[in-house]
């Protein structure tokens, strides 16, 4: 009867260690994956704002590209000015950015691909 309690106690400790490891692993993965998604959301918001006001302020393609590229730098998004594509007809503005973020988990290396797009049509 005494041996049975000892083995059950050891099994309980192993389960606790296993689930603690799983919880820490999930937290670590979230810690590494969340920032690129937050940055992409913020970039998307800035792109939407700039597309909305581009026709009002009569911004050129290069002005828009500079604004978006500055935002990418502020958000530490790896990319180049050439990754920013702009269609601007005066009445229609479309901004597209295509970039890749390296994801380095201790046991796995990959890249996350993002392609935020924003567009706006003038009401007039």
Q: How would you portray this structure in words?
A:
This protein has 124 residues and is α+β, with helices and mostly antiparallel strands. The protein contains two helices and five strands. It is 56% helix and 24% strand. A three-stranded antiparallel sheet has the order 1-2-5, with helices on one face. A two-stranded antiparallel sheet has the order 3-4. The longest helix has 56 residues, at 2-57.
**Can you count the beta strands?**
5
Rg estimate, integer Å: 24 Å
> pLDDT under 50 segments (min length 5)?
none
- Biggest sheet features: 3 strands, antiparallel
Strand content: 15-25%
Largest beta sheet: strand ordering: 1-2-5
> Which outline best applies?
elongated
Helix residue percentage: 55-70%
Mean pLDDT: 88
Topology pattern, helix = H, strand = E: HHEEEEE
The structure class reads alpha+beta
- End-to-end separation: 86 Å
Give the helix tally.
Answer: 2
Produce a short descriptive summary.
The protein has 124 residues and is of the alpha+beta class. Helices cover 56% and strands 24% of the residues. The chain is elongated.
Topology:
Blueprint: H1 2-57, H2 61-74, E1 84-88, E2 92-97, E3 99-105, E4 108-114, E5 117-121
Antiparallel strand pairs: 1-2, 2-5, 3-4
Helix pairs in contact: 1-2
Throw out a few tags for this protein.
124 residues; alpha+beta; 3-stranded antiparallel β-sheet; two-stranded antiparallel sheet; 2 helices; 5 strands
């Amino acid at each position: 009867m005494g041996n049975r309690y000892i083995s059950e106690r050891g099994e309980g400790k192993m389960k606790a260690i296993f689930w603690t490891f799983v919880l820490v692993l999930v937290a670590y993965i979230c810690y590494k994956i969340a920032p690129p998604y937050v940055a992409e959301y913020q970039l998307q918001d800035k792109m939407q704002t700039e597309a909305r006001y581009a026709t009002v302020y009569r911004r050129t393609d290069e002005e828009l590209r500079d604004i978006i590229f500055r935002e990418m730098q502020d958000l530490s998004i790896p990319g180049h000015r050439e990754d920013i594509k702009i269609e601007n007809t005066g009445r229609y503005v479309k901004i597209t950015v295509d970039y890749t973020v390296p994801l380095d988990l201790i046991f796995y290396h990959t890249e996350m691909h993002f392609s935020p797009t924003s567009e706006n049509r003038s009401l007039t």
